[in-house]
């Protein structure tokens, strides 16, 4: 009788062991699957700051078109709405967002423009009208009216198109280059 009781208990223990091994195996597979999924998962963060006009997102090494558009408008404001007094501050802000291998070239370009503003006692105002974005190439083209002033007198008004080349690296959108594409003179 004791032998039958011992065998029954042993069978019940083996059955429990097999059940727990099965459950543990399923849990192990689920953990491995979740770890694998998290390894390749790109988190999308939706941002709606108070000063911007539209929401945008960043995901892995990609950004939304709206983000490129908003940042291009921000940088265009710093670069083109300027005077001899504000040029050094604007230059410092822009260089904080410069791509490291473009820093020297961008700094030389900004210093040259700053010298021109001081020499001519110039101030400019840019009124953007069209922004087109290429998300795959990380570029934005802005077309608008650039008004130039000496003192309080407007000396010129041109329709100009500028291109920003961006680089997105580890959560930061960096400026690679800023280029004037075309200028059309308008009546002053």
Please give a quick description of this structure.
The chain has helices at residues 2-40, 65-80, 87-96, 103-120; strands spanning 44-47, 56-59, 62-63, 82-83, 122-134, 139-150, 153-169, 172-185. It is α+β, with helices and mostly antiparallel strands. A hairpin with a 2-residue loop joins strand 2 and strand 3 (62-63).
Choose one word for the global shape.
Answer: rod-shaped
Strand order of the largest sheet: 4-5-6-7-8
| N-to-C series of helices and strands | HEEEHEHHEEEE
Enumerate the spans where pLDDT stays under 50 for 5 or more consecutive residues.
none
**How large, in whole angstroms, is the Cα Rg?**
30 Å
Q: Termini distance?
A: 113 Å
Structural class: alpha+beta
Overview of this protein structure:
Helix 3 runs antiparallel to helix 4. This protein has a five-stranded antiparallel β-sheet. It has a three-stranded antiparallel β-sheet with strand order 1-2-3. The mean pLDDT is 87. It has four helices and eight strands. It has a domain of 121 residues: VirB8 protein (Nuclear Transport Factor 2, Chain: A). Helix content is 44%, strand content 36%. The N and C termini lie far apart (113 Å). The protein is of the alpha+beta class and 188 residues long.
Which terms summarize this structure?
Nuclear Transport Factor 2, Chain: A, single chain, alpha+beta, 36% strand, 188 residues, 3-stranded antiparallel sheet, 5-stranded antiparallel sheet
């Amino acid at each position: 009788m004791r032998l039958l009781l011992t065998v029954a208990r042993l069978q019940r223990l083996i059955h429990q062991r097999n059940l727990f091994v099965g459950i543990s195996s399923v849990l192990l597979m689920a953990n491995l699957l979740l770890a694998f999924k998290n390894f390749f998962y790109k988190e999308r963060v939706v941002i709606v700051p108070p000063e911007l006009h539209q929401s945008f997102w960043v995901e892995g090494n990609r950004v939304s078109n709206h983000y490129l558009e908003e940042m291009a408008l921000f940088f265009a404001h710093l670069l083109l709405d300027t005077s001899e007094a504000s040029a050094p501050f604007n230059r410092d802000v822009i260089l904080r967002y410069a791509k490291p291998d473009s820093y020297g070239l961008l700094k030389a370009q900004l210093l040259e423009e700053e010298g021109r503003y001081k020499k001519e006692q110039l101030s400019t105002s840019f009124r953007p009208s069209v922004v087109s974005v290429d998300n795959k190439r990380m570029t934005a083209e802005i077309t608008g009216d650039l008004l130039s002033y000496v003192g309080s007198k407007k000396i010129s008004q041109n329709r100009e198109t500028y291109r920003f080349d961006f680089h997105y690296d580890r959560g930061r959108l960096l400026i690679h280059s800023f280029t004037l594409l075309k200028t059309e003179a308008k009546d002053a």
